[in-house]
Amino acid sequence: MYWCAAVETNAFGEAVVEFALSDSVTSFRATADAYTADGVFGAGDTEIESRRPFYVEAKTPLETTAGDRVDLPVVLVNETEKAINAQFGVALSEGLRIGPAPRSVDVPAHSRKRVILKAQIEDKAGTAKLTISAGSGEYFDTVTREIAIKPLGFPIKANFGGLLEGEAVHAFEIPASLTEGGLTATAAVFPTPLGNLTAALEALIRDPYGCFEQTSSTNYPLVMAMQYFQSHTGVDPALVRQSKEKLASGYERLIGFECGQKGYEWFGEDPGHEALTAYGLLEFADMAQVHPVDPQMIERTKAWLLARRDGKGGFARNPKALDSFGGAPDEVTNAYIVWALASTGEKSISPELGATAQVALKSEDPYIIALAAGAMLEADRADQAAPLLKRLAEMQDKDGSVPGAKTSVTRSGGQSLLIETTSLAALAWLKDKQYAAQVEKAMRWICEACEGGRFGSTQSTVLALKAIIAYDMSRARPKAAGRLALTLDGELLETIDFGKDAEGALEFKNLAGKLLPGKHELKIAMEGGSPMPYAVEIEYFAETPANAEACPLRLEIEPASIQAAEGDPADIVVKLRNTKNEGLPMTLAIVGLPGGMEPRHDQLKERVKEGLFDFYEVNGRELALYWRSLAPNAEKEVSISCLAAVPGAYKGPASRVYLYYTPEEKQWVEGAKAEIEAKK
Predict the structure, then answer these.
(1) Is 192-475 assigned to CATH 3.40.50.800?
(2) 261-314 pLDDT, tens digit each
(3) CATH topology assigned to domain 155-191+479-544
């Protein structure tokens, strides 16, 4: 900002210079280097701080729960030479109530004066705004703070979906234990796969996404969307541009997970993991069709994977075998890697293709058979794929799903595993016209499996979307204009007219306000148009949790109630237990912290180094802790140090634990309470 090389001091070594500074409230560093006539050197520097003469500071919690009380610290700072009698005012939006506040505050010269505003959080989920104004004459300042308000209780979801032809009717019940201010409802119809992609992306990014596979799974829908844009006309240019920007950002994040010794791993640590690297290779190959991808990176990734061949038709395994991918059975991992390599055009895997086909012919597992069938078809081995496709057709259930898989490459289970297997089967059947009936049944079931935009876990969502896109490209029927109508308990709520060129999701807006405790019947009807997927999600908060009996994990949070003084540390102990006499794949515990409490990131990093957990991320008041795997009957205990940052009385969101690749099976723990006393 200022440079002068010809400053001459007086006999006492003093000189005066003048320069202009910006009006930013920040600090500046001034540095001087000097020498005397006889060659002696000297140097010095100082910091110049720019401050407003009078200003207001207010600290709010990151998030709150309906019913919390926030003792909001507001500080008035007077940097002038005179005392200021500051007029004080508070403006509120819906969702907040403030107790008595002073009309004026005396602030002495060169001092700070603190005022505590007692704010009550009302039963209205959303974002509340608080505006504080103070000052006198020429010295005046205004600050606005936003406070996120979350509902009280345990989140419970009801999801419906399917393929809309004519009309669809669903009956459901909202319990009387519904907590106030916590119900949301969405109903949408998807004229094209673009709507599915957008909804899935919005759903996926609401969950933690700190590792390579999670980042991939939030990025993959963008890849598929860009592929869709290239094969369809009339797409909004702004949407294309936005997708390109997000894809570029996601790509840069993804390549940051490459291991030092090559290959990819959940958190980028050596050694790389074979099946996870295969998943990354598959994504990068698809991405290269729509976005610049470093070809050398793809080649070295493929070379690393090929170097892991064991010479027996399979692949060597990561000796640590600590995570979900590494923990899958050999025949599952080998089939997945061969499928990924064949799908990316690799020609040098003839022994591995042969071995995979032989294993699949003897297997009773439809997941392995579907992977092998897909690999044979990608490698132009239709004769070897034929008996596998036929066996898959024999395994298909009446509802269109393909049950019977024991596990997947991510060691998923439940509904997520069923979606993965059915999607892989559909992708294979789509390459053989004689299985058109099986494809139709499978795609109808996949559409019905949609929950709030996503299809189970990240892995199953990506495979379901791949099947939807492939189905659209091979079986797309002419679109037609039409009208949608949403009816609740016989009352028409909303209609939507759409043209034959409609692309994005057609969303009904007026559902949530009509839902009260009790039994309901919801109907979506369509006049004209052509068959389209639809999805309905109703989320509400209740006093009791919906624990899944099949969840093999148990979580405890201690203490249930915290007493602390403002500025003091407070520990929260997380206890996790594997109830099974067998190892478990990637496990995720999400710990809900009371508002006003903030975790110490320096301590969390130390906990990772100590091996107490493998990774963490913080989203609002929620702290997500990852374990790559859990040993049989494993018990974990982690002490989390937090800072009592904002005084008040708070209740945190419900904590939960689940296997990352079986997210539908969770165990919940009531949110912890905290009473933080304001310092004097």
Answers:
(1) no
(2) 898 877 877 788 888 899 899 999 989 988 899 999 999 999 999 999 999 999
(3) Jelly Rolls (2.60.120)
